[in-house]
Amino acid sequence: MKLKSALLGAAASLVFAPAAFAERGADGHVNVLYWQAPSLMNPYLSGGTKELEVASPVIEPLARFSPTGEMIPHLAEEIPTLDNGGFAADLKSITWKLKKDVKWNDGSDFTADDVVFTWQYCTHPEGGCAQLSKFHGVEKVEAVDAHTVKVSFAEPKPYPYATFSGPMQPILQKKQFENCLGTAAPTCTEQNFKPIGTGPFKVVDFKTNDVVQYEANPYFREADKPAFATMTIKGGGDPEAAARAVLETGEFDYAWNAMVAPEVLAQMTAAGKGKAVVSFGTLVERIMTNMTNPSSQLPEGERATVKHPHPFMTNPAVRKALSMAIDRELLVEVGYGETGKPTCDFVPAPEAYAANNTSCLKQDIEGANALLEEAGYVKGADGIRAKDGVRLSILYQTSTNAVRQDFQSMIKDWWAEIGVETELKNVAGAVYFGSDPGSPDTLVKFYADVEMYANNFDGTDPAAYLADFTCEKVPGPDTGWQGPNYNRICSEDYDAMINELNRTADPAARQALAKKINNWLTVDNNHIIPLVHRGAVAVHGNSLGGVILNSVDASIWNVKDWHRVK
Amino acid sequence: MTDSINTAKAAAAAASYRPPRNQWWDVWDQFRTHKGAMFGMCVFVLLIALVALGPWLWDVSATQTNMRMRNKPMSWEFPLGTDQLGRDILARVIAGGKTTLAVGLTAMCLSITLGATIGICAGFFRRADNILMRVTDLFLALPLLPLLLLMVMLFREPLVQSFGPELGIFLLIVTAIAMTSWMNTARIVRGEVLTIKEREFVLAARSIGTPARRIILRHILPSVLSPVMVAATLGIANAVITESALSFLGLGFPPDFPTWGRLLQDGMPYINLYPSRVLWPALALSSLVLSVNYIGDGLRDALDPRIRGR
Amino acid sequence: MLTFALRRLMTAIPTLLFISLVLFMVLELSPGDPLADMPLTIPPEVREKIRLAMGLGEPWYIRYVLWLNNFFVTEPMYWIDGTFGTDLADGRQRILSYQTRSPVFDTIGERIPQTLKVVGTGMIIGICLAVPIGVISAYRQYSWFDQIGTFISMIGFSVPTFVTGVVLIVIFSVWIPNDSAFWLPTVYDTGLKVTSWDTFVAQVRQMILPSAVLALYYAAQISRYMRSSMLDNLSQDYVRTARAKGMSEKVVVLIHVLRNSMIPVVTVIALMIPGVFTGAIITETIFKVNGIGQQLLLSLQGNDAPMVLTITFIFAVLIVTFNLIADILYGLLDPRIRYD
Asked: What's the main place this protein lives (chain B) (predicted)?
């Protein structure tokens, strides 16, 4: 028997060179650096990317996404679809069949009860679960038998996979978390720091915002994995220091999110100790235009609300000219290098949904000037265009970040060439991305004419992301300054398209409609001026093999396949 | 009648009276003999001249990006090279110096004045001591970042509206730095005053009925000058670094507004690739602090009557 | 002096209570949101629920009183339970951080060792260097030693630690190959336990760079105060008297002058020691020491009010204590100083 498996292993090794010789724990220790240190190991309580990243080797969802966006069953036998009958024809329920040989890392069996419990845990009214929106529209989750789970929706759901797939909703062990429901959730420190999971590694020690120690899970369902017996994920420092620790001092094997200036990265990799890997998800750096007047002359409560339309940003020609004046190629070259691509799309990926517009890629200062001239904006003595006494003077805000400040300076110069005056402002990230209604400097209050930031969507379905700009989602004093429609767009055409998207289940029709909405927001109306499609970047040492970066799922999603290159 | 006599007397007195040489001339003479101080003075004047006259001598924009001229080394066209956006580093150092010198010197003066006043009052007037020192404890304990965020939130808009964006933010930053850095000076000065006010010369002054104000100005203040000078030197460096941290966090000047601290921070990621980007602002900053330190040294010696007499 | 100390201790309690209120209000009023670093993909209504679960729905005075109660009643109970194995606390709610959802004191306890080691060592080395440098610089004013000392200390103070730290890393960890004996690690391993000679060497090696950066920074400041204060005293009459009486230079300088010059130095050191507790934010971040300074920075950035409030309040207690100690030391150094 042993001989047979050894022979099989040898045969496999011909196919999967050098990984296959590995047996569990044969390759010793691996050192990973996350410069943003994880605060806890429970993605339901944090919602932060760093937390779900470090939790991903331990707790697993039913299915993960591959880097190209395909679904890969993890705890499920297979992906339920309309074809195999797992997804009901009325679109109102989906039935997951679970793998039968899965054990928790304390040795107990994984069953459907754990999945049902996870749903109860997150949807508890007092729990403050960060992933609550993933269970939106879920009426009930029930265990049909010990290894079958049925998720029922209140209304037909064209895309049913938002629940229980991807890194945000791993399955928690019922036995461990039973007493942590609702208000008790944050008090379960031991559980939140050392969750019991089904993944390749288990947590040995967790120091908050500092370090996580893992060891291989002895009950992991793939007998020869993971290759590493132990793993350390250390936190702290900054992106430069992280890249340096892998590429220059060689202290670490892998560093996550090593966002450094392209030339610096090139110089560090030139030392030959390791390399950078890039993966493109759906993250787009963009400029948003404000449809309302943010002038400080207006009284508080009316400023930047639909009551006062913007004096010139409401003119499509102005928005188009602003977009035309930008040289996206150059932005990428200066700010991101290999880790970014110029884009004209709000939804740049996955391929099926990407409109792949190219009309904005070429900078056209002359065209932009002509367009503004035509729209009646003429240059004054100071070189700034104006029409009816309204000067094209823009306040341009973003968060504090070296690349963003470089972008601001470059774009300011280009806009000056088309006769638009720009005042720059940067706000500390903690304030800018916060939603303190008392602060005037937040993303959502948008007390500026344009603002720049990056955003993406989870998983592979952009429907919810595209639906952010309906009239009812306009933030304002009446909504406590909440709502994702930062631009304050309010258009019947757009709302109608969104309604239609929410009723369409046929994939081809959904994709066509999504592209139409994408174009409406970007190239047709320029409400959103996309700049750069940003990739995730990680660096790893030459001796670490098996790294396949993923920006749709957790970036270390395949940590079980990592091994030491001899 | 009496009036005319008085005026005549005064006129006569004025004619026969040659005012004694002003003591400040003595101070200046002593200061001049101090080599370090003169050297510091020269560097300081040079820095001021660079900043004040620089824009005329080197007429290049500090903020204009030039994508074809990125990361150029030192050359005749760009004496200190260019940065990652093709901006001329010399022009940026000159433009940054203006803000840095203004903020550093003003904030330091404010902070030292505030600190010394509170320190002297606390040390001299026993009744004020407890309350003033507890206020000092309070300020020492306040975390800088939330306090600054709060100040920026409350005062940025009104200040910018009444003084314009540049002066408004300048006032805000200078006040913020002074408000959060006077405590060390106050504690140090108070400690000194506590021992000095028990010295014989203060007792003598007090026993002949010198009013408190006069004792403080004539006797106490000159004696606490040397720690104040040290605090002033350290204060400049502190102000410049705090300013750059503020701008970095987006609480200070807008991002297209170079300052030395900011140039230093912007250059840090490139330290291994282009060390000169860190070197130049660091050099400028260090020479400013060093020159102020030597001037302070000289001034301390010059104002000390025991040394001046020698 | 005793009555003075007692009186000061009495006034310390209302002072600290007032400080805690001001700290709380500053954190409460300053803009910022504990949910700011969560992804934008989390919708607003979910954010609101998270906020309520954190207890942010309560009015500020209730949260303040709760925090006071937790800090002064519940947490000491847990501490007693932990020490004596009693069960006073009985599962009461502790001070929980917004960010880590775990008790604030556990995190502080986890971080104190590395902060004390690194920052404490830096400060001790700094003081040990600064006092002799200050004394010699003043005694031999304008000598080469003095000039070089001045120059180095000014560089040490005017170049911020985020520059000196990275420069040291580039020199000792990048330029020197990592199989050399002089290579030094840039990442501090908080899990390292000193059990043998080798682990002790590893511990020392990982402390060298961060402690050196801090020592330079502290030494620069203290030596300036030491020097100027020595200079003031060297020209005093009592020094001439002592010399005239035939005392040796050693006695004159090291006993008479040094003692009288210590007042500003004691003040500065007393102001610095509480800083050991809050750690050195920048240095800790650069070398990934992950002590209290780095935690404070993360908590400030993440608007984690319970953590910031607790750390700064402990800091305030230390400030009040050490300033009291400094005041008592003044009296010992100069018996003429009276407080009552």
From this structure: membrane
Residue B229 lies in a domain: yes
Which CATH number is B226's domain given? 1.10.3720.10
Residue type (1 letter), A324: M
**Which of C46, C111, C175, C284 is the mutation pick for testing A, counting most A CBs within 10 A?**
C46
Residue B72 lies in a domain: no
Residue with tokens 């919810």: A464
Predicted TM-score of the model (pTM): 0.86
- Which residues in chain B touch residue A440, judged by CB atoms under 8 angstroms apart? 153, 157
B137 vs C221, C264, C320: nearest CB: C320
Q: Range of B172's domain?
A: 21-61+97-303
Strand partners, A153: A138
Chain B residue closest to C332 (CA)?
Answer: B195
Asked if residue B16 belongs to a domain, the reply is no
| Complete domains list, chain C, with CATH | 104-333 (1.10.3720.10)
CB proximity B165 to A under 8 Å: yes
Q: Which residue of A has its CA nearest to C29?
A: A438
B164 interfaces chain A, CB cutoff of 8 Å: no
Q: How far is B272 from chain A (nearest CA, A)?
A: 8
| Closest B-chain CA to A240 | B269
Let me know: does B189 contact C268? Beta carbons within 8 Å.
no
Question: Distance, in angstroms, between B5 CA and closest chain C CA?
Answer: 48
Cβ–Cβ of A334/B70 closer than 8 Å?
A: yes
On chain B, the residues whose CB falls within 8 A of the CB of A405 are 255
- What is the spatial distance between Cα A234 and Cα A251, in angstroms, rounded to a whole number? 11
What whole-number distance in Å separates Cα of residue B277 and Cα of residue B266? 8
Instruction: Give the distance between the most distant pair of CA atoms in chain A.
Output: 89
Q: Considering its fold, how many domains does chain B have in total?
A: 1
Alpha helices in B164-275 (DSSP H): 165-179, 183-196, 200-207, 212-214, 221-223, 225-248, 260-267
b (16+ CB within 10 A) / e for C93-130: ebbbbbbbbbbbbbbbebbeebbebbbebbbebbbebb
Domains of chain A and CATH, by start: 22-58+199-273+542-565 (3.40.190.10), 59-183 (3.90.76.10), 281-380+452-535 (3.10.105.10)
CA C60, C66, C70, C73 torsion-angle sign: positive
Note whether B272 contacts A409, CB cutoff 8 Å.
no
Asked if the structure places residue B84 within a domain, the reply is no
Per-residue pLDDT of chain A (566 residues; tens, 9 = 90+): 344 444 444 444 444 444 445 588 888 999 999 988 888 899 888 777 888 899 999 999 999 998 888 899 999 999 998 888 888 888 889 999 999 889 999 999 999 999 999 999 988 888 778 888 888 889 999 999 999 999 999 988 888 888 898 888 899 999 999 988 888 888 888 899 999 999 999 999 999 889 999 999 999 988 888 999 999 999 888 888 899 999 988 889 999 888 888 888 998 999 888 999 999 989 999 999 999 999 888 888 888 898 899 999 999 999 999 999 999 999 999 889 888 999 999 999 888 899 999 999 999 999 999 999 999 999 988 889 999 989 999 999 998 888 898 899 999 999 999 999 999 988 887 788 877 777 788 888 899 999 999 988 887 888 888 988 999 889 888 877 888 899 999 999 999 999 998 888 888 898 999 999 999 999 999 999 999 999 989 999 999 999 999 988 888 999 999 999 87
Q: Give the N- to C-terminal CA distance of chain C in Å, as an integer.
A: 8
